Amino acid sequence: MIERANQPEYMRLLDPGALAKVHRLELIARGVVEGFVSGRHKSPYKGFSVEFAEHRQYAPGDNIRDLDWRVFGKSDRYYIKQYIEETNLRAVILLDASGSMRYAGTQAAKHDGRYLSKFEYAQYLAASLAHLMIHQQDAVGLVTFDTESRRYIPARSRVTHLRAILQELSKTQPGGETSLAPIFHDVAERIHRRGLVVIISDLFDDPDDLLKALHHFRYRKHEVLLLHLMAEEELTFPFDAWSNFEDLEVADNKIQLDPRSVRSEYLEQVRKFIRRIEFGCGQMDIDYVQLSTKQDFGIALSLYLARRRNKAK
After folding, report:
1. Within 10 Å of residue 143's Cβ, how many Cβ atoms?
2. Cα→Cα distances 8→12, 123, 163, 250, Å
3. Which pTM does this prediction carry?
4. Complete domains list, the chain, with CATH
């Protein structure tokens, strides 16, 4: 076995503790997906598989072994039983690499002895999800972005493809301003077969524009999983002393203020924003998951996957 200390830098993103928590769980598509490899997800195409879908009238050339003789006995007509085929899932992970994702508060979960920034937390989430899906023989792609798409890696299901995703995750650094909605619209047009879109972001953008962009994915018949990641300080605003607050996306944009004077209004605006996104996602049947960097990422991911599995039963 290769010692972890001697592994390539990108392999650090496959945290053994997190993988141990999720390795017995699965990420199964709730809706139908399109693919070519036999798998565990429902396909929109009819064939002769396991789960019954519907009847269609017999046509010359059909295999008579697929005739439903019970229906024939009642109607004196020949009908073929059709079943829902299963296929592999094609997923694309959209990772927010904007400047605001650099924030690492002192209430964040620690990893390797230091507090994780939102972006580092998101890197581990993306790596764990990619590992999980590829090892359940599904295809995974990656998009990193800030004001524009930085890199687009198409979905592949080969185990060797995981290395390309991990390498890209490892070398990506958060940088520019946030411009989520145009990115989502662009990606929605670039993914041609319906599948799963996983978004990991702090969602610092106009909520109405965001929801319109998310609707674009649903219009294209993609399933959407939205992992809304925020630092614990952004959710609770625990600051007490006069402080300098710096915009991580716009250079030299700072303000000094007494946080106690704005805490109430700030928290109300955060609550309104989260409620607006959560309600809009609910209307579109988008899986919205709010995450705080305070919680261990392996635990957060395994709890979500377990809830999703239980809902599917």
Report:
1. 25
2. 8, 16, 10, 33
3. 0.80
4. 6-32+88-312 (3.40.50.410), 41-87 (no CATH)
